[in-house]
From TrEMBL:
Pfam families: DUF3522 (PF12036). This is EGF-like domain-containing protein. Residues 502-513 form the EGF-like domain. Keywords: Cell membrane, Membrane, Transmembrane, Transmembrane helix. It is found in: Cell membrane. It comes from Lamprotornis superbus. It is a multi-pass membrane protein.
Length: 589
């Protein structure tokens, strides 16, 4: 039995007609927002058929694929095409709906303790079979999709103040107590400890910690019965987020269990000292909640977009560290908005960056919530080889979300920890250029840490007296390389959310229209263009007959139509064999 006050919220979206998948531009995208302290989210996925304004009982059953992702739209690839080079593909969860009734089906998708913030659903029909049919001879079958979201969240969760001790007595009928603590910026370590635990069988408690949402059975866990003192540490915690602490009683333990719980936050700038109590103005001291058994599906444990208002042009230089050992300056970037999803991030006193041998160079890129998640985040590193002085230097870059990763291990080149995943870039004298593209990035703060290491016979070692110089470029674009010459970048909208996607042509496919597995050859494109244009020669016999019969007005009309039809088709081809003598809209008119 769950104790505490729950609030249930209900959200729904208007049904939309689904289309067969050709590219991301043909999917239907739905945007939801899950509030903080949500313990369960349930999506009802309703699909029904229509034909001629009535239920489409005679329509064939076509499977419907639905994708879920937290923080940004899903990067999907149902046709298994190739992505452009240097493209990172974020993961998402997908399910397929099958029909249980002739004209209607319903699916349910549960998420226990979902990450708060923006969630996106994408849905589409399978790829069309390519059959040609005459439109208007029969009523078209339509497949409509409507998602509904029900969330249940706790209110008045007990707040832990860093450095303060909270006492708790867990009654026999309760199984757990839930708390949360806010972790501000420049915190390098979170330490949760259970003190003075007294029960019928020693300290029969589990201690679980999770960022952003209440813990699950697979969250970071410590058995207080086997560890004394009962301490659970989280290095490199996410900044500007709530951390949830769940103290859970072992099953079958009789009587009341009493204990104390406290949290210590380590300040990056003063690693030997604990951070003084800090709490956002919206927080308040409340009593803890007691829970029944926990469990369910944990989805989207990648960082969601931050809800705080990030300063576009910070003037202070904060610091960061690894595991509370050292602090390094974090250099801000200047945001310059040129157009929709066209944003350049300029480095103060850049774009050339000096990477000293004894410490990393750390930069922060702030993406605005919702507004920036529909484009592509591009990062480019170019090494100035002349600055190496003949040394075998490699500059490694780690791009991480919401917390910088500056490893104290001088020989390590990984950008991941147990709870933190990132992207690795590297440049050296042989490969002086490295690029990274992230379609539909999660919003919030992205941190880039650059450090230089020298290659030796025993691996990488710290360099001495060599300061590498790197050209750094970071920007947002609507599509990857503007979809190339075989695609068109389209700006799409679902309600008030904007996103961009490529629509490919001439048989090219893929996220950036770079997959040529089914592409038309140049000869085929040239032949099809010539045949289509030369088909207008059929106007010549009517023109000759009209001139011979002295119907000059009719002959002029035929010549006029033949001329513009020929060049209209020459300008309307989907490939690279295109010839336009004037604006396409003029020819079309």
């Amino acid at each position: 039995m769950v104790d505490g006050l729950f609030v249930t919220d209900y959200f729904t979206r208007t049904p939309r007609k689904l289309s067969p998948f050709r590219s991301f531009a043909s999917i239907e995208l739905f945007h939801f927002h899950i509030p903080e302290d949500t313990v369960i989210a349930v999506w009802n996925l309703i699909t029904f058929k229509e034909q001629g304004g009535t239920f489409g009982d005679q329509c064939p059953d076509r499977s419907i694929t639905v994708y879920f992702r937290s923080g940004a739209p899903s990067v999907i690839n149902p046709l298994h095409t190739h992505f452009p080079r240097d493209t990172a593909v974020p993961g998402s969860f997908a399910l397929t709906l099958t029909w249980t009734l002739p004209n209607r089906t319903t699916g349910v998708f549960n998420v226990t303790s979902p990450l708060p913030g923006d969630w996106f659903l994408a849905a589409h029909l399978p790829k069309d079979e390519g059959k040609i049919s005459v439109k208007g001879l029969y009523e078209e079958c339509q497949y409509l999709f409507q998602p509904q979201l029900i969330v249940q969240r706790l209110v008045n969760i007990a707040v832990l103040y860093p450095g303060h001790v909270t006492e708790q007595n867990m009654a026999p009928h309760n199984r757990s107590c839930l708390y949360k603590v806010f972790v501000p910026s420049y915190t390098s370590r979170v330490l949760v400890e259970v003190l003075r635990c007294r029960g019928a069988e020693g300290c029969p408690l589990w201690l679980r910690v999770r960022a952003k949402a209440p813990p699950l059975h697979n969250s970071t866990t410590l058995d207080c019965r086997e560890h004394t003192p009962c301490q659970l540490a989280q290095d490199l915690p996410f900044w500007q987020h709530w951390y949830y602490v769940l103290v859970e009683k072992h099953p079958g333990v009789p009587g009341t269990v009493s204990f104390q719980v406290t949290v210590q936050l380590t300040d990056c700038s003063r690693p030997s000292l604990a951070r003084p109590p800090f709490l956002p103005s919206s927080a308040s001291m409340n009593m803890p909640h007691s829970f029944g058994s926990a469990g369910g599906l944990a989805l989207g444990d990648s960082p969601p977009p931050t809800s705080s208002n990030d300063t576009k042009h910070p003037v202070s230089i904060p610091v960061t560290s690894h595991a509370g050992e050292r602090c390094w300056p974090v250099r801000p970037t200047l945001r310059n908005e040129l157009d929709t999803f066209s944003v350049h991030f300029y480095i103060f006193f850049g774009p050339n960056v000096s990477v000293p041998p004894d410490r990393p160079a750390v930069f922060v890129i702030n993406l605005l919530p919702v507004l920036d998640s529909g484009g592509v985040l591009n990062l480019e590193l170019r090494l100035n080889v002349s600055s190496l002085g003949g040394e075998n230097v490699t500059v490694f870059g780690c791009l991480n979300h919401e917390v910088p990763l500056t490893s104290s291990d001088n020989t390590s080149v990984t950008c991941e920890t147990e709870s933190l995943a990132g992207f690795l870039l590297s440049v050296n004298a042989t490969a002086s250029l490295s690029r990274l593209r992230i379609p539909y990035p999660q919003t919030g703060s992205w941190y880039l840490s650059l450090r230089s290491l020298c290659a030796t016979e025993h691996g990488f070692e710290p360099c001495t007296n060599v300061t590498a110089e790197v050209y750094l470029r970071a920007y947002l674009s609507p599509c990857i390389n503007d979809c190339g010459i075989y695609g068109q970048c389209k700006l799409l909208r679902t309600n008030n959310y904007l996103y961009a996607a490529c629509e490919c042509k001439a048989g090219w496919n893929g996220w950036g229209c770079t997959d040529n597995a089914e592409a038309f050859s140049y000869g085929f494109q040239l032949l099809s263009t010539l045949l289509l244009c030369l088909s207008n020669v059929m106007f010549v016999p009517p023109v000759a007959i009209a001139v011979r019969s002295h119907y000059l007005l009719e002959a002029a009309v035929y010549i006029f139509t033949m001329f513009f039809s020929t060049f209209y088709h020459a300008c309307d081809q989907p490939g690279i064999v295109v010839f336009c003598i004037m604006e396409y809209d003029v020819l079309q008119f």
